Structure formats: C-alpha cells, structure tokens
Amino acid sequence: MEVIEIAELYKHIKKHFPFFDASLAKVKEDHKYLKHFPADAARTNIDQHILTETVTPGIAHIRGRLGDQLDSQRSKRQAEEYDAQLNEWSEIDSPPPEGYWERTRKLLRGDMT
Q1: Domain coordinates of the chain in residue numbers?
Q2: What is each CA distance from 12 to 25, 89, 111, in whole angstroms?
Q3: Does residue 4 surpass a pLDDT of 70?
Q4: Chain centroid to CA 87: how far?
Q5: Residue range 13-24: average pLDDT?
Q6: Which of 10, 31, 63, 87 is in Cβ range 3.0-4.6 Å of 22 for a Cys bridge?
Q7: What single string gives the DSSP state of each residue in 3-53?
Q8: Band of the pLDDT at 113, cuts 50, 70, 90?
C-alpha cells in the first residue's frame, strides 16, 4: 500500500474507533509494515473487524491472517474444480474413474495427503 492508501484506511478506521491514532506520523511509521500488503485486502480485513470486534485494530488486524486467507482461497478453488469434475461426470453419465472411491475413503480417513 502507498502512504496515501494507508492514510485513507486509517481515516476510515478512525470513524469507527475514535481512539485510533490516525496521525500522519503513525501512517508513516506503519508504512514499513503495510507497504507490501494489498490495499483491498486491508480494507476487507478492517471492514470485517468493524463488524465483529470492539477492540481498536492494530497492524495485525489490518493484515489479517494472510496465510489463512490464501489457504481459504486455495480450498475454494479446489472445491470449484472438484465440483466441475463431478458435474462433467454427471453430464456424460459414466462412473468415476477406477479407484476413485477407494482413494476418497483413504482421504476421509486421513490415510493420504
């Protein structure tokens, strides 16, 4: 994020958390922690924080749990691909490939990764 984006985000936070330090000095100080973080993700995290928390947000809240977010996106993408594959199989009305059910059972039991 650029300094101006951080300043705008801090102004938004200040509207909802009056004790939040949105000073120019704080914006410049926090830039080193946020400069490589996407502004849209920060805004999304703060909007979610406003909806669910009463604690004044800090850098960790602004950044959110990026690893968890990436895992969530990856899981959603895999689920969509899997759903598309199931739909394709249902359209051609053929059984799943050889070994599909055995592999699925092993995955559910945790025997495979």
Answers
A1: 3-64, 67-109
A2: 17, 48, 48
A3: yes
A4: 27
A5: 96
A6: 10
A7: HHHHHHHHHHHHHH-TT----HHHHHHHHHHHTTS-HHHHHHHHHHHHHH-
A8: low
